[in-house]
Specification:
CATH class of the largest domain: Alpha Beta
Shape: globular
Radius of gyration: 20 Å
Bound molecules: pyridoxal-5'-phosphate
Order of helices and strands: EEHHEHEHEHEHHEHEHHEHEHEEHEHHEH
Helix content: 40-55%
Strand order of the largest sheet: 3-4-14-9-10-13
Largest sheet: 6 strands, mixed
Number of strands: 14
Strand content: 15-25%
Distance between the termini: 53 Å
CATH architecture of the largest domain: 3-Layer(aba) Sandwich
Number of helices: 16
Structural class: alpha/beta
Number of domains: 2
């Protein structure tokens, strides 16, 4: 239990709900109701049925033979890339829209940076026939055209955030403003284990299906529910939390997070929060974030849009501080190499986010008998242009 959220919404020194007075009612309504709703048998039945028939769960746990051979150990891939919409994010958006429905809401808002969370949100809104507004920085709308088109095709309205740097944090501000103005009919779907309590815990519970499946799949394939290592990439930390959740109290299992080191930890162009970050408040919770000495958030950088975030969820700040999990910084270059290797050895093109987790295989010497599970958070279709550019550069 010591890694779970407490009644005050804290994980050790991190978490809480640091929100403007005007948002108190919205967040409090959610906090008061979320556990009652998601523990209700009727909710569980609907959620599990949709995870099975709509998302395509359980996602396979695949023993990668050639990758295992290469690293002289036993590498298993948890195939979240095979989910409907191509990543783990839909586990959470599906859970939250079912909560929204039970709270009597008929409108959904979300913010998105790269567009992945926006697409996963637009998808479940279409499924449930709910109105969907996605806030997105004007610059991100330019940079992420295909995802913007996907959201529109799915019936969502994409609203540009024109203030500030016109990126994710400005989109978040706009979404908050909308929510303050529409407290009774609107639910705000947050896309990772970030934000004010109860969001980090609620999102973790929806993603926990990943490690729930891992336990019985490992039992079937290896004769034990416990692996030696679990590796996952960490942007905000939702896929990692999903993969860790049912192993938090199994201290024999090494929990490993891969963070984006961008062009290098000390290059000024990275998103390696556990190395560079300090305690502060970001998006409504106390956590670790990259900031200047006077507390300004530092603009992060990573080749993978999903890891390009200046903080981590409060639960990961706690796992880091208590040393329950270990975090490895992975550069763009290391991730791209690891992603290419998976293409060649296993015929799987991973999301560049997930490639950061694969790159940890080069950082640790595993034993021949070790069971190593890597959470393959998403597929690489969206990253094709980046892979092509990388290959061109290396052929020159
Ligand atoms: C969004 C995303 C991530 C990062 O988000 P987390 O909340 O840290 O999981 C990782 N992988 C993929 C494929 C993503 O789309």
């Amino acid at each position: 239990m010591k890694y779970q959220v407490d009644e005050r919404g804290y994980y050790g020194n991190f978490g809480g709900a640091f929100i403007p007075e005007m948002l108190y009612h919205n967040v409090e309504e959610l906090r008061y109701n979320y556990l009652k709703i998601i523990e209700d048998p009727d909710f569980k039945k609907e959620f599990n049925q949709l995870l099975k028939d709509y998302v395509g769960r359980p996602s396979p746990l695949y023993k990668a033979p050639r990758l295992s051979d290469r690293y002289q150990t036993n590498v298993y891939l948890k195939r979240e890339d095979l989910n409907h919409t191509g990543a783990h994010k839909v586990n959470n958006t599906l859970g939250q829209i079912l909560v929204a429905k039970r709270l009597g809401k008929n409108k959904i808002i979300a913010e998105t940076g790269a567009g992945q969370h926006g697409v996963a949100t637009a998808t479940v809104c279409a499924l449930m026939g709910m109105e969907c507004i996605v806030y997105m920085g004007a610059i991100d709308i330019e940079r992420q055209k295909p995802n913007v088109e996907r959201m529109k095709l799915l019936g969502a309205k994409v609203v540009p955030a024109m203030s500030g740097s016109q990126t994710l944090k400005d989109a978040t501000n706009e979404a908050m403003r909308h929510w303050i103005g529409n407290p009774t009919d609107t639910h705000y779907i947050i896309g990772s284990v970030v934000g004010p309590h109860p969001y980090p815990d609620m999102v973790a519970r929806f993603q926990a299906v990943i490690s729930k499946e891992m336990r019985f799949q490992l039992q079937e394939q290896t004769g034990s529910e416990l692996p030696d290592h679990i590796i996952a990439c960490v942007g905000g930390g939702s896929n990692a939390m999903g993969a860790f959740y049912h192993y938090l109290d199994e201290e024999s299992v090494n929990l490993i997070g891969a963070e984006a080191a961008g062009l290098g930890i000390h290059s000024g162009e990275s998103a390696a929060t556990t190395v560079l970050g300090k305690s502060g408040v970001l998006h409504g919770s106390k956590t670790m974030l990259m900031q200047t000495p006077d507390g300004q958030v530092i603009e992060p950088y990573s080749i993978s849009a999903g890891l390009d975030y200046p903080g981590i969820g409060p639960v990961h700040a706690h796992l880091c501080e208590t040393k329950r999990a270990t975090f490895y910084p992975i550069t763009d270059e290391e991730a791209m190499k690891a992603g290419m290797l998976l293409c060649k050895l296993e015929g799987i093109i991973p999301a560049i986010e997930s490639a950061h987790a694969l790159a940890v295989l080069d950082k640790i010497k595993f034993k021949a008998s070790d069971v190593v599970v890597i959470n393959l958070s998403g597929r690489g279709d969206k990253d094709l242009a980046t892979y092509i550019k990388y290959n061109k550069k290396n052929l020159q």
